[in-house]
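Take one protein record:
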Amino acid sequence: MSAVPRSEKSGRAEKPSGRFRRMLDRLSSSQEDLESEELQEDTHASGCTRISECTDRQIVKVTGTLRTVTLRPRAGVPALEAELFDGTAPLDVVWLGRRSIVGIEPGRKLIASGRVAMSHGRRVLFNPKYELRPLGKE
């Protein structure tokens, strides 16, 4: 055993948690970093699984913000595809046989649940149960 604290062994010291330090961290962080941190906090608060922790064939409940929404046919059948991001990793959400769904649009927050599949190295939820989060809750 050594006398060096574990946080210093890993190469990064723990951040001071003072009010001034948090304000400086927020000012020096990029907008993308701040949004990712906020999404991760929302995931934790809602009791959902982090997308980065989802494995193939696992039944999950995830939350995040829709980055993109596209109509892309699969085997001649219309499919509405959206990319959900929770601050840790993206997840493709696919509704087969649908051209559009009211409320499914970029920037919308939602909770989705279903069985994760891996397709071309990406996590995918096919025809998930979903719940749209209220607008203006930011």
